Amino acid sequence: MTDRTTYVTLAGVRRRGWTDTMVRDLLGTPDVQGRDPRRWSLAPLRLYLLARVETVERTPEFAETSALSPARSSAAAAYAERRRAAVLAAIRAEPIEVPRLPGPELERRAVRHRQLLGARSPGSPPGGTPPKASGEAPAGALVRWQVSYLRQALARYEALLDGLYGETGRGEAERLLRRRLYEAIAAAYPALAQECRRRLAVER
């Protein structure tokens, strides 16, 4: 099933074989305008829900107006495969720079991030409110919060996934990126390595 929170830019729709006329007549108004909901970008964007795009692509109206011949369909598939391979190669080669912070500063930022998050991290004990200081953190929770903070600090690397919309290709790239990010955190902070391994196992 397609993730209902996955969006395609206008350029991405065009790469799937849509013309601007088809976008206007068959998709109409973008589902989101003005920002990328994945990264809260302020860049002006027109985004379409991938699930809606795929639904329209299965209709007779799309088949009648599609500019994609069998030859162009093969070319589009070949392009998608090249794009997938290029993204995977970029993720493997990209240096992951983890913020290096003194222990007390990392703890302070992790607690602050926890307070701002407004929701419990996976595995946190139920009940209660976020602590005001690291000394008030439940046993083991501070490690989880530190990994959560560092993972968020590395969110910019998700831009490496741009241009991948197919479930299989994107899923493979997301798993590779997730593994590289957690491995980088574990290398920078050995005390957090066990939590990183736990998250990799859970999120797999």
Describe this structure in words.
The protein is elongated. Helices cover 55% and strands 4% of the residues. It has a three-stranded antiparallel β-sheet with strand order 1-3-2. The protein has helices at residues 10-15, 20-27, 50-57, 60-65, 70-93, 103-117, 141-153, 167-188, 193-203; strands at 7-9, 32-33, 46-49. Residues 119-128 have low confidence and may be disordered. With 204 residues, the chain is mainly alpha-helical.
| Helical residue percent band | 55-70%
When the domains are counted, the total is 2
Strand content: under 5%
Secondary-structure element pattern, one letter each: EHHEEHHHHHHH
Question: What is the tally of helical segments?
Answer: 9
Q: What is the count of β-strands?
A: 3
Mean pLDDT: 79
- The stretches of 5 or more residues where confidence is low (pLDDT under 50) are 119-128
- Label the structural class: mainly alpha
Q: Sheet with the most strands?
A: 3 strands, antiparallel
The shape is elongated
Q: What is the CA-atom radius of gyration, in angstroms?
A: 21 Å
How many angstroms separate the termini?
Answer: 17 Å
Oligomer designation = single chain
Q: Which strand order do you get reading across the main beta sheet?
A: 1-3-2
